[in-house]
Design brief:
Layout: E1 3-6, H1 23-30, E2 39-45, E3 51-56
Parallel strand pairs: 1-2
Antiparallel strand pairs: 2-3
């Protein structure tokens, strides 16, 4: 088993994203699983389930974005 996060393409800037998980919400969701469960990204969901391609998530893939946030709905 693996946890797959569906990669959604929603905009060209963070101000175009209407709603996304906070760090706390993501931690709460992931805390329900065994800590050894792999986490990956799924791209291009298929009609019959699953994804067309998958991608790994590694520590160097996580970074802070310095772009101005204009959406106060988070």
């Amino acid at each position: 088993m693996a946890i797959v996060i569906n990669a959604n393409r929603e905009g060209y800037g963070i101000d175009q994203i209407r709603r996304t998980l906070t760090v706390g919400e993501l931690i709460e969701i992931l805390s329900q699983y065994d800590e050894e469960t792999p986490v990956m990204v799924g791209n291009d969901p298929q009609r019959n389930g699953g994804w067309y391609t998958y991608g790994s998530i590694n520590p160097e893939d996580i970074s802070e974005n310095e772009e101005e946030e204009e959406n106060d709905e988070w």
